[in-house]
Write a structure and sequence with these properties.
It contains one helix and 34 strands. With 418 residues, the chain is an all-beta fold. The strands form eight sheets. Strands 1-28-29-30-31 form a five-stranded mixed beta sheet, with no helix packed on it. The protein is globular and about 55 Å long.
Length: 418
């Protein structure tokens, strides 16, 4: 562990179940905040450069890959008829050998009925939430279509399809595993709520209605579990505001109101602050002290920033610097404690994927499949620009010196040649 990074995220790691350093077991990795530690990652790659393997993935899915125990897991949706987007879909989980890219198994988890399933937004897929690997279990989530637990050979242990809600634009947010509970948002078109399933058997542990009644209810955010003054919280932004929940009971601890809906970015935590983006139509970046009780909108917001706040990519906290990229491609580095901007630079292109930090470098990935690597620090310095020439909305996974990049049709393992 690099001591220079401890202030940024140590408190959020006190109770998150760690996987070995070589693993990337959930959305944004073992810390859930996009921080990688391990052998150096490549800074240069291309369709013919530093590609260890490239594997076509059937169907369509924007879930990010996860890596554990030398295997890669992801989900996808394969059409069962001629209507590729709005017909019946086979919602599937896949497992690949991380060394070779060979598909070890590919199993159907749910069948989505195209006659009853609402249409999705053009940028979305029917398999967008990222799975979680914990111990000998794989948890896959398809939003309103259901949640399931499999063993690592692909055998279904349990399924839950009882949490019904009217989605808008399809599924999106990934779950968070906190102790023995799988927690996720169900922020649909009406009556939004947050739910927790027992990780052992899939039964509903608690279900808490959202207390903000915003004019558009739907959002797609992934929770972040943190610890504050010895107590656990699950921070989960949604339409109209962010709420921190007691993971055991689902009771609200604190909340902050804002103007925004269709919230996607996952929060990050460090320096005594939670950092998050407020969603559409005019996003703001907020820094919030998470030690309050009740509605702390007027007392616990340390700062707000409107310029170039992201709608889709999650922010990235490294030490005392906060990094983020807007959907239109402007990357920013600022002082996490004060909100003062150190630099703001256009990377070119559109962005949905969340950035990653590794070995003093920030890795960005555009929707056009261009990977931009910049030096972490208060001065902007671009180190490399790489192009796979394929559409990319999923976020990076990183494990054992390799980057895993999911594009519209393929999964790549990228690593410096030895």
């Amino acid at each position: 562990m690099k001591h220079t990074l401890l202030p940024a995220f140590a408190f959020s790691l006190l109770f998150v179940s760690f996987s070995p350093a070589a693993d990337w077991p959930e959305f944004r990795g073992p810390t859930a905040q996009g921080l990688y530690e391990g052998p150096p990652l490549p800074i240069k790659w291309g369709r013919e450069q530093n590609v260890v393997w490239k594997k076509p993935i059937p169907g369509t899915g924007w879930s990010s890959p996860v890596v554990a125990g030398g295997k890669v897991y992801l989900t996808t949706a394969v059409p069962k008829g001629e209507d590729l987007r709005n017909g019946d879909q086979s919602l599937r989980a896949l497992c690949l050998n991380a060394d070779t890219g060979k598909v070890l198994w590919d199993h159907e988890v749910f069948v989505q009925d195209g006659r009853t399933a609402p249409k999705i937004q053009a940028k979305n897929s029917h398999a967008s939430p990222t799975p979680i690997v914990h111990g000998n279990r794989l948890y896959v989530h398809f939003g309103h279509q259901g949640t399931a637990c499999l063993d690592l050979d692909g055998k279904v242990i349990w399924k839950n399809r009882e949490l019904k809600y009217p989605p808008v634009h399809g599924n999106g947010g990934s779950p968070e595993l906190v102790d023995d509970l799988l927690i996720f948002s169900c922020d649909g078109g009406s009556d939004p709520f947050v739910a927790a399933l027992n990780a052992a058997d899939g039964k509903v542990k608690w279900k808490t209605p959202r207390s903000f009644d915003y004019f558009k209810h739907f959002s797609f955010c992934t929770p972040l579990a943190i610890e504050v003054n010895g107590s656990k919280q699950v921070v989960l932004p949604g339409s109209g505001g962010v709420i921190a929940y007691d993971p055991k009971t689902g009771e609200e601890i604190w909340k902050v109101a804002y103007e925004g809906y269709s919230v996607v970015p996952r929060p990050v935590y460090g320096q005594g602050l939670v950092f998050l983006s407020s969603g559409y139509d005019a996003p703001q970046l907020l820094a919030i002290r998470p030690d309050g009780k009740g509605d702390v909108t007027n007392t616990h917001v340390a700062w707000r920033l409107k310029r170039d706040a992201p709608l889709n990519p999650s922010p990235l906290l490294v030490g005392e610097e906060l990094y983020f990229v807007s959907d239109k491609g402007t990357a920013t580095c600022l002082n996490a404690r004060t909100g003062d901007v150190y630099w703001s630079e256009s990377l070119g292109g559109a962005f949905s994927a969340s950035p990653l930090f590794a070995d003093g470098k920030i890795y960005f990935l555009s929707e056009q499949g261009r990977g931009v690597v910049v030096k972490a620090g208060k001065q902007f310095e671009e180190l490399a620009r790489n192009d796979l020439k394929e559409r990319a909305l999923a976020s990076y996974a990183a494990a054992d010196g390799a980057l895993y990049i999911r594009t519209e049709k393929n999964l790549y393992r990228v690593q410096t040649s030895k």
